[in-house]
Structures are given as C-alpha cells and as structure tokens.
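Record 1 of the preview.
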Amino acid sequence: MVTVRFEHVTKKFTEVVAVNDVSIEIEDGELFTLLGPSGCGKTTLLRCVAGFYVPENGKIFFDDLEVTRIPPNLRETGMVFQNYALWPHMSVFDNISYGLKIRKMAKKDIDENVNEILELVRLKGMEERYPYQLSGGQQQRVALARALVIEPKVLLLDEPLSNLDAKLRIEMRNEISRIQKRLGITTIYVTHDQEEALAISDRLSVMDKGVVQQVGTPVEIYSVPNNLFVADFIGECNIIKGTIRSIDDYIELETESGHRFVGVAEEGKKSSFSVGQTAYAAIRPENLELKEESSESNHIQG
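->
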C-alpha cells in the first residue's frame, strides 16, 4: 500500500476554482475521508487522484512517485462510483472479474481471485445473478469487490452509500470499515454525510469552496474545530455572536442583547483575539448544563 500526498493542488473549470491549493498527506493503510457540502471540491479532488482530472497546479504523489499526469489505467487505483456503474448484461462474477480479464490474467487465477473476494464481501453463492436481481446493498458490494479484486494500491470511494436507505447505510459503512481494516488498503472516501465520516474515518478533511478547512481525527474535528464553518458544519452546535470586552485568564464576550459570557481560549490562541473584536462562541449541546438561577457569573468552557 502507499502514502498519498497532495502538494498545493489546484483544479479549475474555466473561472471556477474547484480545488484551491490543497496540501494533505494520507498515511499508508489509512481510511481518510474528504467531507464537505455539495460543490466543496471533494469529488474533484478524488478524481484528480484517480487521474480523471489533471490539476492546473500542484503535484500528487503515491509514496515518492509523482502521478499527477499518469493515465488512470496506470495508477493502480480501484474506484467505487456513486451509482456503482455495474454492467447490466453481466453476471456478478463477470462484473467483478472484468478488470482481471482486461489484464489478461489466467482463467484459473481469475476464478481463484474472484471467489476469494466474493467471500470477503459476503456474496458467495450469488455469482450468477445479474445486477437487477440484487438489492442496493448487494450491488454496492459487487462494485466494491470489482474495485478490490485488481489489488489496487489506493481504493477510492465516491459517496458509495448515498443511494441506500438509512439503515442499510449504517450496515454498509460498517462493512466497508471491516474490509478496509482487514486488507489494510489506503482508502480515500468522499461523503457529505458528517455522521458517516465521523463513524468510519481514521482521519478526515473538512472542505468548503475548494479549500481544506481542517484535517484531523473525528474527535479533533468535533471537539476542537479550527473555525466557525467547521464548528457549524460538524454536529449540532449553538453559535453565539458577540464582541470581546476583556481578555485576561478568560475571554469575556458580550452579545448584542447585552448578555456576557466568559470562556477559556485554547492554549496559544489567546493572542489572536483583541478587545472590541467580533467573535463567536460555539457550544455543543452536551456541554450545556441547566441549573437553578445563581448569583454567580456565567462561565462557559469553550
């Protein structure tokens, strides 16, 4: 498996900057998610990895090999598309084995590899069925098996669960996580579903308008957001706007209604604030505790 590295990657479509100066390193064997709202650039970045798009600026590496302009068929990636893209006239076996046949693998080896991957994705016994005879979850497994059977260095998943119902999405994301951990394959996963991303990822990147807003573990992204966008996009959050009135051991924020809140700034970030500056306090619901009225000052850990 490989480490995937983006160095200042920019991709434009005429005047629209879809991906803007992205630099990320994805570790060997990591399940890394590109998360963000529609139009944020996550799928464009994934397609740059696959070789479907060539960025205007920047470089993409698999380990120390630059792949920025290497054709898709030479990159050794496997991709699962949002709509699965299964051949309707081919059986499950033929869909999965297609990539091996293109590579002119011996029939005996094809049979062995396909049967092994069928066991892995729990589709044994369904080899002769056609896509129209399968449920959405089964079709998704076929698409995943087809991507994995060629033994890619990097697995690319473009919103693979978006066409499934809520219950099946949870089941299939657990399956993807199980298979990825078992194979130890470097995986880049694209989704707009924050719950999905937090549940499945080793690390993730939150994107907006082509720019990476934050990279971190699910706990880091949720608990210590870099900015207002990340705080508001990830999970439920109460956003309080106000003006900074004093900075000491604590930062005091006054709202437009005249209420004052006192919070603790993160270590090293206090210097970025100044008295009179407009600021926002972001409070997770689970960090709120309602008490009877008290004469003491309100204090909020933030």
